[in-house]
Amino acid sequence: MTFDVPPGMPVPPRLPAPPVGEMSNSALADLVRAGGPFRGKAVFELGDRAATDDDAATVLGELTALPVVRDDRFHLVTLAWAAIVALLTAGTPHARQVAYQAFAGLPDSEQRDLLLYLHCDRIEDARP
Question: Please, what is the average pLDDT of the chain?
């Protein structure tokens, strides 16, 4: 997708992507909290780490309560949903427990929609 910039309007510089693979869990959380263009990259990096890093799972679960994560929607899915799915996919007992807690923190309507998206009746039955 390209955007035409009106004549005379300066083009904002393209920011270099941060090296999320080299960042600490805390630094990734800060990147998400800042709400900038790379918050999604940080969420997905934490999701990738959740299978082998309980701290990453915990941090990711905590981030799902933030409006910058809950309200960030692409199509039907929110960034909070993506985080919960990543935690479920990580498959560890800790990551799944964090996913259940994050799910419980969603409004009822979001819980219903996420269960529909996951094709299950209970979050504990989800196997993404």
Answer: 92
Sequence-ordered list of residues with C-beta below 8 angstroms from that of 91, at least 6 positions apart, any chain: 51
Query: C-alpha distances in angstroms, 71 versus 12, 29, 63, 76, 79?
Result: 25, 16, 12, 11, 8
Mean pLDDT over 45-65 rounds to: 97
Extended beta strands in the chain, E state: 73-74, 77-78
Instruction: Name the pLDDT band for 4 (thresholds 50, 70, 90).
Output: low
CA dist., res. 128 & res. 72, Å (int): 21
Separation between Cα atoms, residue 41 and residue 17, nearest integer Å: 9
**Mean pLDDT, range 105-114, rounded to an integer:** 96
